[in-house]
Amino acid sequence: MPIAQINGQGIFYEDSGVGETAVIFLHGFLMDHTMFAPQVAALTPRYRCVCFDARGFGQTEWNGQPFNLYDTAADCIGLMDHLAIDRAVLVGMSQGGYAALRTALTYPNRVQALVLMSTRSGTDEDEVKAIYRDTRDTWQAVGPIDPLIEGLLTGIIGPPEAHAALWAEWRPRWQSRSKEQIFHAMNNLLDRDDIDHRLSEITVPALVTHGEEDGGIPIALGEALHRDLPNSQGMVRVPGAAHAANLTHSHIVNPPLLAFLEQSA
Questions:
Q1: Is 89 helix (H, G, I), strand (E, B) or coil?
Q2: Alpha helices per DSSP H over the chain
Q3: Which of 42, 129, 183, 208 could join 254 via S-S bond, C-beta 3.0 to 4.6 A?
Q4: pLDDT number for residue 45
Q5: Which domains does the chain have, with CATH numbers?
Q6: With 0-12 CB in 10 A as exposed, 13-18 as middle and 19+ as buried, what is 58?
Q7: Hey, is 39 helix, strand or coil?
Q8: Which of 105, 116, 111 is nearest to 28 (CA)?
Q9: What is the C-alpha to C-alpha distance for residues 229 and 141, in angstroms, rounded to an integer?
Q10: Shortest CA distance to 238 belongs to which of 223, 260, 259?
Q11: H helices of 157-201, where?
């Protein structure tokens, strides 16, 4: 099992080990590295694909301490060092996009390009934070009850009648998350800083993708990210897709992703 000891954590990762250009994937909240399976399949073997599980999720051996998005950025760079990768294209979805943007700001010489999926640069509005806190606190009080999990599945993946197989796959994974994992992972989102005013510092090529039916991060925020990044190369709107558009609608996301990598990487 590939575990790298980085920043006091046992970071679980998978590395295709093939291709001159490295592409590193950073997953969203409640997800793990496998959410990028459709992209890894499309990119391998032309690109070296590296996926890892963020603290609190997947198979990473997290030390149980509070963490923030800059810790995730440091974990990403630490994994690059572990794998002798000097520069990489970062693909970040939602929470992973928050971390990818902060990696580009904190370690600009290590980031070759950015693909930002279903994400934003600003902080959440008060009403959204209230929903997040309610989710966190419900999980603490009564655990991952069905109404909670089903609401998250609908918001992230989409309705069950359209994505029954994905519901069956992800429901038990989310139900296995402990109260401590969810508490600190949610605080990681709630307490993030606003980097809207720093987007002009990120000059690497970027691609933005976003589901048109994303209720968690409305597509208008993805469009704003595309507009405000100095070197955004395109905005991919995914019709009918909720939050995890890259997973549910990879047939729409993958072609422009491959074209962007061909041009920018």
A1: strand
A2: 37-43, 69-82, 95-106, 126-142, 146-156, 164-175, 179-190, 219-228, 245-248, 250-264
A3: 42
A4: 86
A5: 3-123+193-264 (3.40.50.1820)
A6: buried
A7: helix
A8: 116
A9: 40
A10: 223
A11: 164-175, 179-190
